[in-house]
Design a protein that fits this description.
The structure holds two protein chains of two kinds. By secondary structure, chain A is mainly α. Chain A has helices at residues 2-15, 23-54, 61-64, 77-108, 114-126, 131-144, 153-178, 181-189, 194-222, 226-230, 251-259, 264-295. Chain A has two domains: 19-57; 61-295, Orthogonal Bundle (MetI-like fold), CATH 1.10.3720. Chain A contains twelve helices and no strands. The longest helix of chain A is centred in the N-terminal third of the chain and has 32 residues, at 23-54. By secondary structure, chain B is an alpha/beta fold. Chain B has a domain at 24-89 and 102-117 and 188-277: P-loop containing nucleotide triphosphate hydrolases (Rossmann fold, 3-Layer(aba) Sandwich), CATH 3.40.50.300. Chain B is built from twelve helices and ten strands. Chain B has helices at residues 3-12, 16-21, 65-72, 102-108, 123-133, 141-151, 155-158, 171-183, 201-214, 227-233, 261-266, 271-277, and strands spanning 27-36, 39-49, 54-58, 82-90, 93-94, 109-112, 189-193, 219-223, 236-244, 251-260. In chain B, a hairpin with a 6-residue loop joins strand 9 and strand 10. The radius of gyration of chain B is 19 Å and the shape is globular. The chains are: A mainly alpha, B alpha/beta. The complex binds adenosine-5'-triphosphate (ATP) and magnesium ion.
Chain lengths: 299, 282
Amino acid sequence: MRTVQGTIERTIRGRAKGGETSASSIAFLVVLWLSIVFALVFLAVLIVTTIIDGWNRLDSRLFTEYPASNPEDAGARPAILGSLWVIGTTAFMTIPLGVAAAIHLEEFADRNNWFNRFIEVNVQNLAAIPAVIYGMLTLAALGLFGVTNKNMVWVGALALSMLILPVVIIATRESLRAVPEEIRQGSLAVGATPLQTVLRNTLPGAVPGIATGSILALSRALGEAAPLLLLGGLVFLSFDPNGLMSGYTTMPIQIFNWTGRPQEGFHELAAAASVLLLVMLLAMNALAIAIRNRYQQRW
Amino acid sequence: MNPIDTTEAAARADTFEAAREYRPPVLDCDSVSIFYDDFLAVHDVNFGCGDNEITALIGPSGCGKSTVLRSFNRMNDLIEGARVEGTISYHGEDIYHSDVDAIEVRRRIGMVFQKPNPFPKSIYDNIAYGPRVNGFKVDSMDDLVEEALTKAALWDEVKDKLKQSAFGLSGGQQQRLCIARTIAVRPEVILMDEPCSALDPIATLRIEDLMHELRSDYTIVIVTHNMQQAARVADKTAFFTAEAHEVTGDRTGVLVEFGDTAQIFESPVDKRTEDYISGRFG
Ligand SMILES: Nc1ncnc2c1ncn2[C@@H]1O[C@H](COP(=O)(O)OP(=O)(O)OP(=O)(O)O)[C@@H](O)[C@H]1O
Ligand SMILES: [Mg+2]
């Protein structure tokens, strides 16, 4: 018993930064640990209760059925397909634009120019703006151009694109910056133009980081409901979304809708759909981590 | 030069040495001063690098060797505020003339850096990169890659793993790869900035041997901190030092002495050269 206690004590003391052994620093350390434990327990309880709630509805009906007024007959098929459509379109719109913007800022823009510095600061700021603002922005833009039918895949993708564009730009810039200057110099020294240097050398070296950052950004967009709710995404769909102009709903919207219904059956459905969404998010994050570990360039 | 001189020269050109005297320098500095913004880094440098010669630039740290070397292939253009005054000519043509394309200058005047900097690509693609970006029309890229690697004395070591990442090579191999990469774009001049400073003695000797071999095909300019290395490889040596300006106190690099390596090392004319060579300074 005494040795166990001794071990614990040594561990605590050893872990305390700089070998701090005073009572107050150990107390502080314990508070930090408790914070972590609290967060983890909270998360675990949330996940477990959601799984328990949705367990009975985690079956094939979730994937095959359309929303219905009777919870027993309802499923999330259009929402799942809608999410895939919207996220796919978002990726298509955001990644080329974000990467191009990052290349410009990082490799070509004159850093001493006040305008470029202004843009840089604002890209950072935009990444911190609440998602719902982007919904409002899209709404306003649509109004300006007189688009009345807002429930279209490309409109939702547009709002989510604006939401994650700054994140993609920042991630890309960081991966470009990680490519050592010597690589660029080596490329220029064999007679490559600056553009060739970026496209054939710097950018390929940065791809793993860009992929990781983009996937994480897209997974954020996948879980986002607020901007799409503003854009009238809340609908009963009895068809599969099948194109950019198609009407759509997404999983977070569907979940939001079901949670608001009085019937207990819909709450179960919402829990089941939440579990599915969670699995999709985890899969995307796992993919991002796998890409990072597998292809990350150690310079 | 009148025609009679030329015939005389031809008559005297029985020996290789004599013929060499009549070749104009490939790279020539005429009153070259180099600035970083307002800071005068190098002042009034005059010397030339001859065809098929190895020229060593030596001198204490901060005397502007790298600065001069970078100005030879316009790598200085990439540094904000860097500016060259005077004339640097390549075969008599001012490389800083507004009609001259810096990209073309860099293809003809290649550069090997202090730290080996292979691209994050396969060994093969590292070599093929230069010919590709320059739009070379080659019958067989494989042959070109083999030729460049052979010239850089690396072929035998890597011929079985051309598709593997260049990062898997040792430091010395990586540096020879960088030399091969430079050779692959068929430059006439190769600039090397302390190419061996990150390598062990054996790898260093291999690179020195390689320089001797390359000498017959290329004009080589090398910056080195290693006096023995300069004595071993170079035909000509330029000794630089940094002197504090009387008024501003800025340490500006100047060319103290330039001449045959043997002369610089055995009978330096300038006291400062002698002190540096004999290790009393720097
Ligand atoms: N990019 C730069 N911007 C501003 N000043 C520079 C830059 N590069 C070099 N200098 C300055 O120019 C002077 C010459 O530097 P340089 O690197 O050419 O010296 P060097 O002889 O190559 O030294 P070393 O032997 O240490 O490599 C130094 O005073 C240095 O501080
Ligand atoms: Mg240097």
